[in-house]
Amino acid sequence: MTTTILVVEDDVAIRDMLCFSLKQMGYTCIAAGDGEQGLDCLKIQQPDLILLDWMLPGIDGIEFIRRLRANEFLANIPVIMLTAKGESEDLVKGLSVGADDYVNKPFSPPELGARIKAVLRRCNPTESDGKQTIECDKLVLDTKSHRVTVDGERIDLGPTEFRLLHFFMKNTDRAYSRGQLLDYVWGDTVYIEERTVDVHIRRLRKALEPSGYDNFVQTVRGVGYRFSAEM
Amino acid sequence: MTTTILVVEDDVAIRDMLCFSLKQMGYTCIAAGDGEQGLDCLKIQQPDLILLDWMLPGIDGIEFIRRLRANEFLANIPVIMLTAKGESEDLVKGLSVGADDYVNKPFSPPELGARIKAVLRRCNPTESDGKQTIECDKLVLDTKSHRVTVDGERIDLGPTEFRLLHFFMKNTDRAYSRGQLLDYVWGDTVYIEERTVDVHIRRLRKALEPSGYDNFVQTVRGVGYRFSAEM
DNA sequence: ACTAAATGTTACAGTTTTATAACAGTCAAT
DNA sequence: ATTGACTGTTATAAAACTGTAACATTTAGT
């Protein structure tokens, strides 16, 4: 799950610096040079957060937020204002118009990062797309506590086996090739031998063995693997 | 049940006067000379209400409240602003930022007392006793007295370990990343190495060791830590 | 039954993650 | 100034995890 941030800032140097820092922090970044451009970007793609310079040519910060909040699809996107020092007047205006937080220029990347994290957290209190536990017969995977249990009996899994089981339990009764599993469970950026999947399947089976659920992990010869309650 | 009030006011005379009046009214009083000091106080002890002068050297009222609201433990503490006459501008700002009420200087102690009572009533509708202690098996954490005991046996914790345990006991059976713990326990405005969390986890475990509750603090490899009665 | 391909299993070396201890700076109380 | 408690950082040790390759077994087709 990548988090996308829209940066609206007219100063090229600052904009580039921002995008660079944000990417380093693992965010995906869209950049706009003025309010008009920024609003255009929003028509195409909805970011998870907006970094908004307050002093903009054309549409200024206040106006930008107004228009943003006026659109029901965009109204909930949190906004962090970037203000120069001494603009505390505007600051209050901004917060009252609907900005969620602000950062004074100049700021350090860590500080900005902290603010971004805080705002995202505040705005996504539900987190983790709802479902807290996934069940399959008596097998229970709890995403919050990061635990797998059968009848309350705990099953120990390494990080990779946990992700693998998690994926399987979210997508039961369906066969996946080793390549697909690598993409979905490991991520598509790494290059790993396909046979490695076999090894982790083995480890998962072994961990599930005492509970008898190891046969839920099924081999589909010539294709890959499948997780299913039915034999 | 004593009610504690934090006074943040830079003018010594007014501050002392306030503390004196408050004590007369039966409140316990903590005093801070500026915003920085005030925030430090909050790390150690959570008051039931904050009296906040609006004109402060360093961190001003807006910033103070902003930081306050950013911390989940402190977010609900009501704030009464102390404003000089003619600062009606700031008044609006303050209320929009999240102050709960205001009192114009100069004010009379009875007036202030009335406001305090009103705000406390408004903000603690459930109250009367509220949860003062959190328990986990025989482990008892008293939020007011800032004490942790097992079977009446006292356990000594440093401030950070106390907050960490406090957070854990409020959120058991759930894995948190080091980053999340930093956000929730340390606050999202500081930038601290993630490894530092490990060290404090270690200190917490060590402190709990003699009681045998150290294994409640569990490592979730690849993720972070979890506090749970179940192994 | 024989063969080739696919999968199961195991051991291991390298890497990553976590635990622990030691250190230095801060702050308040004395 | 000095002490002592506390905090954050860092270095090193220990533990856990990972990917690979080598070998074993099963499977399907002949």
From TrEMBL, chains A, B:
This is Phosphate regulon transcriptional regulatory protein PhoB. SMART domains: REC, Trans_reg_C. It is found in: Cytoplasm. It holds the Pfam family Trans_reg_C. Residues 131-229 form the OmpR/PhoB-type domain. It comes from marine sediment metagenome. One of its GO terms (cellular component) is cytosol. Residues 4-120 form the Response regulatory domain. The keyword Ribonucleoprotein does not apply. Coiled coil: none annotated. The keyword Cell membrane does not apply. GO terms for biological process: phosphate ion transport; regulation of DNA-templated transcription. This protein is a positive regulator for the phosphate regulon. Transcription of this operon is positively regulated by PhoB and PhoR when phosphate is limited. Keywords: Activator, Cytoplasm, DNA-binding, Phosphate transport, Phosphoprotein, Transcription, Transcription regulation, Transport, Two-component regulatory system. PROSITE patterns: OMPR_PHOB, RESPONSE_REGULATORY. One of its GO terms (molecular function) is phosphorelay response regulator activity.
